[in-house]
TrEMBL record:
<keyword id="KW-1133">Transmembrane helix</keyword>
<keyword id="KW-0813">Transport</keyword>
<dbReference type="GO" id="GO:0005886">
    <property type="term" value="C:plasma membrane"/>
</dbReference>
<dbReference type="InterPro" id="IPR020845">
    <property type="entry name" value="AMP-binding_CS"/>
</dbReference>
<keyword id="KW-0472">Membrane</keyword>
<dbReference type="GO" id="GO:0004467">
    <property type="term" value="F:long-chain fatty acid-CoA ligase activity"/>
</dbReference>
<dbReference type="InterPro" id="IPR045851">
    <property type="entry name" value="AMP-bd_C_sf"/>
</dbReference>
<feature type="domain" description="AMP-dependent synthetase/ligase">
    <location>
        <begin position="64"/>
        <end position="385"/>
    </location>
</feature>
<keyword id="KW-0436">Ligase</keyword>
<keyword id="KW-0276">Fatty acid metabolism</keyword>
<comment type="similarity">
    <text>Belongs to the ATP-dependent AMP-binding enzyme family.</text>
</comment>
<dbReference type="InterPro" id="IPR025110">
    <property type="entry name" value="AMP-bd_C"/>
</dbReference>
<dbReference type="GO" id="GO:0044539">
    <property type="term" value="P:long-chain fatty acid import into cell"/>
</dbReference>
<dbReference type="Pfam" id="PF00501">
    <property type="entry name" value="AMP-binding"/>
</dbReference>
<keyword id="KW-1003">Cell membrane</keyword>
<feature type="domain" description="AMP-binding enzyme C-terminal">
    <location>
        <begin position="500"/>
        <end position="575"/>
    </location>
</feature>
<dbReference type="InterPro" id="IPR000873">
    <property type="entry name" value="AMP-dep_synth/lig_dom"/>
</dbReference>
Length: 623
């Protein structure tokens, strides 16, 4: 008997040795395995969907949830719960109104201009039940930009929230001239040519819409258009297919979320984070979400306590605002165990943990139109995602050398791009193939083509250019470093420098403008700055510039700083030189050119003195 069990201690010792060796050499092995298992599970599900005659979409999942858990709260808004059945029936009513009035049918595109509210979702789902694609318009844009966003997606119908009707005043004649059908989410219209929707929805039947109206045969069918600044020019309507929305809806689930979770969504629904990941993820798990009309740092944790929130959505700037709030004895008193988002700086990440407890921060990386996503499923502070050998088998990406001065990838003597070494910063490219397609933008094919790089490593290959400079360390963690091209991020929004340049160029005293973003201590992203040349015989007018950008640009797009130059430096390819300007920042003690800063109190651009500069970098003066 003793002989027969003599091997047990040796076996146990061997298992212990293997365990410690795994912990030392492969510390993330099991986390990677569990995460990849979920990715494979979802991938298999998508492949099965492709083989069906009728694809199963996020909307189908919602209708299924409304049948399975009709009385469960789906959305809580201003303290009022709306069940899965409530939203299902409300969306049916919306669909019947548009169908009965002949305003929308399968294959049409309808633009939606609404702030966060339950009817945003009801209108979205109602139109989707008719087989329409829905374009989410950014509620911050106005005038020419708003008209551009509406027209570029080919929409013939516009639905407007009751609180946003004033945004139509400048473009209403143009819309009516082009026979655009405009519907306001109120019972009484105050604008000529605008139809009311709310009164008609209240009277419409709640009976289900036949499933064949929304049926599609391919996951590649467009379902949404979500706007992004891309890397240049006016906002672009990124094509969002059922494949992309289905993948995005798996985000919370992949991180370990479940049906008992309550998700807090303070981000705008016109962005993919709140709509695709937030609302879509809630539906995928059969959970409940708390929808906030607008983010409020002072109300955030009170809301989380009031509604027993367990998962929050964030952008990096949001977390910084929360950390800047006065400390409270209630900071740790909440049920939040997970936060999902992007753009969280390492120092804010650490401070967030100190202030609010060891909440699992699930950072992710991806763009609305992109064909690649990274997820930091192990919680490594500072990393936007994690890769490994198996991930690279499914998703072909590479970091290549990039020349900031020439503003283009470095190519070798054969004309091919050069991969960077581990730990070195490079431009992130993702291969375009059948498994990771790129659907591009609505409208001009040139916009889509500009995001593609060809002949990267071989003749005929094609990669999506993310426009982001990244680095990958020896443990396969991915880190965001910078953004290239004519865009930067401020206040959680992408700012297209070309658009801002065009607006500044409308002023009579500005001859030329070069717009870029500069880092400000204690702030996420980059603050807008414009180097301008004054027309001969003119003077800089700070008040006139202030009111001009106030009228024509959203708050996040208005340049914070102005730098007056006599000559605009160009690159070797005759583009405006930005990188030297970016590196020099906005410090008046090291820049000899005249500097100005936007002042909301004075309603003007005032001289940027050393004293003002010090107040900004110390956080005493808000931007």
């Amino acid at each position: 008997m003793l002989v027969s069990i003599a091997w047990v201690p040796a076996a146990l010792a061997g298992l212990i040795a293997i365990h410690f060796a795994q912990k030392r050499c492969f510390p993330y092995f099991w986390k990677d395995v569990f995460y990849l298992w979920k990715v494979i599970q979802y991938g298999v599900r998508l492949e099965l969907y492709k083989k069906r005659r009728r694809v199963f979409t996020v909307l189908d999942r919602f209708v299924q949830r409304a049948e399975q858990i009709p009385r469960k709260p789906f959305v809580i808004y201003d303290g009022v719960p709306y069940t899965y059945r409530d939203v299902d029936e409300r969306s049916n009513k919306v669909a019947h109104v548009f169908e009965e009035h002949g305003a929308a049918k399968k294959g049409d595109t309808v633009a939606l201009l609404m702030n966060n509210e339950p009817d945003f979702i009801s209108v979205w789902f109602g139109l989707s039940k008719l087989g329409c694609a829905v374009a989410f318009l950014n509620t911050n844009i106005k005038g020419k930009s708003l008209l551009h966003c509406f027209s570029c997606c080919g929409a013939k119908v516009l639905v407007v929230g009751a609180d946003l009707l004033d945004m139509l005043e400048d473009i209403l004649p143009n819309l009516l001239e082009h026979n655009i059908s405009i519907w306001a989410m109120n019972a009484e219209s105050c604008l000529p040519g605008v139809q009311t929707l709310l009164d008609k929805v209240e009277r419409a039947p709640a009976r289900p819409v036949p499933a064949e109206r929304r049926a599609v045969t391919s996951l590649k069918t467009p379902t949404l258009y979500i706007y992004t600044s891309g890397t240049t020019g006016l906002p672009k309507a990124a094509v969002v297919t059922h494949m992309q929305s289905t993948k995005a809806a798996a985000g919370f689930w992949a991180y370990g979320g479940h049906a008992d979770d309550i998700i807090y969504i303070p981000l705008p629904l016109y962005h993919s984070a709140a709509s695709l990941i937030g609302v879509g993820g809630t539906i995928e798990m059969g959970a409940t979400c708390v929808l906030k009309k607008k983010f409020s740092a002072s109300q955030f944790w009170n809301d989380c306590r009031k509604y027993n929130v367990t998962i929050i959505q964030y952008i990096g700037e949001l977390c910084r605002y929360l950390c800047s709030q006065p400390k409270s004895e209630l900071d740790w008193q909440h049920k939040v165990h997970m936060a999902v988002g992007n753009g969280l700086r390492q120092d804010v990440w650490q401070e967030f943990h100190r202030r609010f407890g060891e909440i699992r921060m699930c950072e992710l990386y991806g763009s609305t139109e992109g064909n690649l996503c990274f997820m930091n499923h192990v919680g490594k502070i500072g990393a936007v995602g994690r890769s490994n050998f198996f991930y690279k088998l499914f998703f072909k990406y590479v970091l290549v050398k990039y020349d900031k001065v020439r503003d283009e990838p470095v190519r070798n003597k054969h004309g091919f791009c050069i991969p960077v070494a581990k730990g070195e910063t490079g431009l992130l490219l993702s291969k375009v193939n059948a498994q990771t397609p790129f659907f591009g933008y609505a409208g001009s094919k040139q916009l889509t083509e500009r995001k593609l790089l060809r002949d990267v490593f071989a003749k005929g290959d094609m990669y999506f250019n993310t426009g982001d400079l990244m680095a990958e360390d020896k443990e396969d963690f991915i880190y965001f470093k910078d953004r290239i091209g004519d865009t930067f991020r401020w206040k959680g929004e992408n700012v297209a420098t070309t658009e801002v340049t065009e607006i500044l160029g409308l002023l009579d005293f500005i001859q030329e403008a070069n717009v870029y973003g500069v880092e400000v201590p204690g702030h996420e992203g980059r603050a807008g700055m414009a180097a301008v040349i004054i027309r001969p015989g003119n003077n800089f007018d700070g008040k006139k510039l202030f009111h001009h950008v106030l009228d024509h640009l959203p708050s996040y797009g208005r340049p914070i700083f102005i730098r007056i130059q006599e000559l605009m430096e160009l690159t070797g390819t005759f583009k405006q030189q930005k990188f030297k300007l970016v590196d020099s920042g906005f410090n008046p003690s090291v820049i000899s050119d005249p500097l100005y800063v936007l002042d909301n109190v004075e309603k003007s651009y005032i001289v940027l003195t050393d004293a003002v500069y010090n107040r900004i970098v110390s956080g005493q003066q808000k931007l």
